[in-house]
Design a protein that fits this description.
- By secondary structure, the protein is mostly helical.
- It has one domain.
- 77% of the residues lie in helices and 0% in strands.
- It is built from 9 helices and no strands.
- It starts with a helix and ends with a helix.
Length: 222
């Protein structure tokens, strides 16, 4: 059921994008702010204390690796993980660089979901607005429906695949703490960037502040 839910999050995002394809989705910055705050909170409340407890004094190195890795992935995805796509192309070919970078991000974010309920919800909430933005990008760039659905389906499969690998293969379980620390670095980079970029001129309005506070409170009580 968890694997299905991860697919459904992307499907929900695609459905919302189809509904609003002719309109301006003015609530998207608020949705992004909520998702960023929720992902950051679940990371800090659940995953971060665990890896420091079990990983020893050098675990910070792996968190830093995750942050640096996400910076590299951002170079190829042009910011799609945190809600902005800055790709301009006249060729409607399959965007391979965007797909590879997003797939690497989605695969790694699937590893910590095993036995971490709050992180599971955090990733679900994160995926929906990203799927909306990806679908809107493909629609506005006049990609075919087939290309859009193929991209989103493959992208949706990556996070369940990461969770499956961690759950079923002893190799990944042996290095689970280190892998989760890398995922923490990715989550920290993505969520904080979302929070900064969702605020115009680095200042929150009341709606976004409210969304952030609600997200933090919900994450705390999960």
């Amino acid at each position: 059921m968890e694997y299905i839910a991860l697919f459904l999050a992307v499907a929900v995002g695609y459905g919302i994008a189809k509904i609003f394809q002719k309109k301006e989705l003015t609530q998207l910055p608020i949705i992004l702010a909520f998702s960023g705050a929720f992902l950051l909170s679940t990371t800090l409340f659940e995953l971060l204390p665990e890896v420091f407890e079990t990983g020893g004094e050098h675990i910070g190195v792996f968190i830093m690796v995750g942050i640096l890795l996400q910076i590299i992935l951002d170079f190829f995805s042009k910011g799609a993980e945190h809600g902005h796509i800055h790709i301009h192309t006249e060729q409607k070919i399959f965007p391979l660089a965007l797909f590879v970078s997003l797939s690497a991000h989605a695969l790694i974010e699937g590893f910590p979901l095993t036995n971490h309920t709050a992180m599971f919800y955090g990733v679900i909430v994160h995926k929906i607005p990203i799927a909306i933005i990806l679908a809107l990008f493909f629609q506005k760039a006049n990609y075919s429906t087939g290309t859009t659905l193929l991209f989103l389906t493959l992208f949706a499969a990556m996070t369940p695949l990461g969770s499956f690998l961690m759950d079923q293969f002893p190799f990944f379980q042996s290095y689970g703490t280190q892998i989760n620390a890398v995922a923490i670095g990715i989550f920290l980079h993505v969520s904080t960037t979302i929070l900064f970029e969702s605020s115009k001129n680095h200042s929150f309005n009341l709606s976004k502040m409210t969304a952030v506070f609600i997200a933090v409170i919900l994450a705390y009580f999960l």
